[in-house]
Design brief:
The chain is an alpha/beta fold. It is built from 8 helices and 6 strands. It has a domain of about 140 residues: Glutaredoxin (3-Layer(aba) Sandwich). Helix content is about 60%, strand content about 10%.
């Protein structure tokens, strides 16, 4: 009886083992046929999408799109032309400015040193050169603070200047030939005498240049030398001696007319 039970238990165990193996064989991977079919379906879908993209690219643009593209091209071309025109205009302006500066430099180099030497108006502290007065008539009186003849003649200049007070095209300048005189001392001189126009102290180099242009007499204050610069930059001859206000006005008017 015991042997019969053992035999039954053994048969049951073999049956269970056989059932487990059948279940494992059932859960096998998909067959190669199924895989190939799946891959073929994926290829077909990708091909369909590619064909749809190609068809979209091949479709002609409608009129609105073509018109918009043409408008964009016209605007880009117009902006380019405007930019080129502005660039050419800027270059022309720069060239004209360079030419003008070159002409000014050449004109300045042709002037004598005394015309381009920077001076200081002792009454205002402002700097200037005689070249700055281009287009105006300039009456110049070389003088010295110790010179009594100069003070007398400058009194006549003050009378003439008073009659031309409203004429901005006529300038009066007193030039001290005392090259070592301080601006402060010359300013005090103008305050004491009431000579309220432009006065400046010349430099030694400027005095030499003045002598080269007008002769040594221009450096001799007691001879009361004076000259005029015309509006075109040319100068009159040096005059000496006393002149009243009327004579001075006649000289100034003649120089102004060229």
């Amino acid at each position: 009886m015991k042997n019969v039970k053992l035999t039954l238990l053994l048969l049951l165990a073999l049956f269970l083992v056989a059932c487990g193996g059948a279940a494992e064989e059932t859960a096998v991977e998909p067959s190669t046929t199924d895989t190939a079919a799946s891959e073929e379906m994926m290829d077909d879908e990708m091909m369909d999408e590619s064909m749809e993209d190609d068809e979209m690219m091949d479709e002609p643009m409608d009129d609105d799109m073509m018109a918009e593209e043409a408008m964009d091209e016209d605007m880009a071309e117009s902006e380019h032309e405007e930019g080129m025109a502005e660039l050419e205009e800027t270059m022309e302006d720069a060239e004209a400015m360079d030419d003008e500066m070159m002409d000014d430099d050449m004109a300045m180099s042709d002037l004598p040193l005394w015309m381009t030497t920077e001076l200081t108006d002792v009454r205002t502290g402002e700097t200037f050169t005689f070249a700055d007065f281009a287009g105006k008539t300039v009456f110049v009186e070389p003088m010295a603070t110790w010179c009594t003849n100069c003070r007398r003649q400058l009194g006549n200049v003050a009378e003439a200047r008073a009659q031309l007070a409203d004429n901005e095209d006529v300038v009066f300048v007193g030039l001290s030939v005392e090259t070592t005189l301080s601006n402060e001392n010359l300013a005090n001189y103008t305050n004491e005498t009431g000579f309220n126009w432009t006065f400046a102290v010349v430099t030694p180099e400027m005095l030499i240049s003045l002598a080269d242009t007008f002769g040594q007499t221009v450096t001799n204050p007691p001879s009361t030398p004076s000259f005029l610069i015309r509006p075109d930059g040319s100068t009159t001859d040096l005059e000496t001696g006393f002149e009243d206000a009327e004579q001075l006005l006649q000289r100034i008017e003649a120089a102004a007319q060229g």
